[in-house]
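Q&A log
Question type: sequence-to-structure
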Amino acid sequence: MGNAGFTTRQVHGARVRSAEPRATPIYLTAGFRFEGFDDAAALFGGADGFAYTRVGNPTVDQVERTLADLEGGTQALLVASGQAATTIALLSLVSAGGHILASTHIYEGTRGLLRDNLDRFGIEVDFVDDVDDPRAWEAGIRPHTRALFAESISNAAGRVLDVAAVAAVGRRHGIALVVDSTFATPYLLRPIEHGADVVVHSASKFLAGHGSVLGGVIVDSGRFDPAAAAGRYPHLATRGRDGRPSAVERAGGDARIAYARDELAPRFGPTPSPLNAFLIGQGLETLSLRVERQSATALRIARWLAAQPGVERVDHPGLPEHPSHQLARRYLPDGAGSVFTVTLAGEDGAAAARRFIEALALITHMTHLGDVRSLALHPASTSHAHLTEVERAAVGVHPGTVRLSIGIEDVDDLIADLAGALSAADTGRVDAGHAAAGRTPTEPVPA
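Response status: OK
Response body:
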């Protein structure tokens, strides 16, 4: 290209020399050069390879393969966010006129998706309050139910799902169980091993771990029964308008994720950036180390908080008093996670929570979790603000509830920070008691 013009040379540049990098390369490109005319046609016809990053990218592919392996699935599909993962996973199963049965104990953004957005698509949704009871799931199933949806460890009160029991209900009716396992990560729990059909994650959280990027992932068990397609999932058995083979014909037991990859994600467009995929892949390399430490630190902090006089309750499944403690012992032997809630004592819980959060110096106040840094959030005024007071209470969110996501800092530093915040929160409660007794805060309290 030495004889080409300057502008031509600056656009086309020099070819990269062939090499085998140890780290996953970042293929930050919109598309890929075709080797020949027939090669382009073959790729658009479904041949293995890469044509356009919205459809596939080598960096993304490498991270997908790692995630599928860690989660115990056959294939994974990386998308732009956890919310996109949930949306694409459910739309691969449910069409207009269909029905989703979901746990009450789910992320509020997902609840909004189910109640407000999918409703506009003609998809009905019901919620199961008693998620521990398989009979409650059984009773909620309708003839047109196409998906069961729950979280392995719930946001925010840490309810642990009996995955095997709910999966068994789904199998009896030929209905897929989709589990959001963001809080557990595949290091602590692999729902597919317990019968779940599809697992989704917000990869922005623990999988990446550094709070730098957004991403989501769908992992499929590969256990789809092609015989069920004609009944509950006919779209998976329907050929394309041009006669293209159906998802079942193309992928068999992987029909669900093949449909999501080929028909949904490229058309709805939640394409992950290869750079984001790279950074998620970097996070995966230290996942077990981080989660093991975070879980151990969180349990120690939860025990400490539960013994403090200014605390009304701590909802951590690792504590014996938590309603899911026995399930946590069964499903989470390597740790019960590092996200939990603490509810402060006192009549004006919201004011106590405000003082508590504003007094934190080391723990960051932000809407995120699974970071290497410890984080705090007041769910009642943020993530769960659109629920009624009764609905909030049903999922363990009260005016004085603070959600903590424990990072990898030294535990003594975190406890010192929490102790200072509890002291600040308790000051208001003590002042209110003094005022009610007609004393100033500096006056001694009678023995």
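Response note: The longest strand covers residues 145-151.
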